[in-house]
Amino acid sequence: NTGNNIHVSGLNYEVNTKTLRHLSFSSFQVTKASVVYDPHTFKSRQFGFVMMGTSEEADGAIMVLNGTELMGKVITVSNV
């Protein structure tokens, strides 16, 4: 369900999938999380996706986390 998917941008280069899942979304039910990497340099492209358990949780996570700081950078959290 696309209503469960969240786009997270503005990530610090050091944020990996585990960090994204556990530090940002620890109080929500996360089904899947992934940081997108450049296939040539293997460096983070500074964005990722998080799939929540329900669309309501996705909406709640967007409201709570959009504009917050993660590892020194302000992140943007929005629907896909």
UniProtKB/TrEMBL annotation:
Domain of life: Eukaryota
Alphabetical UniProt keywords: RNA-binding
Gene3D superfamilies reported for this sequence: 3.30.70.330
GO MF, any single term: RNA binding
The UniProt record lists the keyword S-adenosyl-L-methionine: no
Residue stretches making up the RRM domain: 4-80
Record protein name field: RRM domain-containing protein
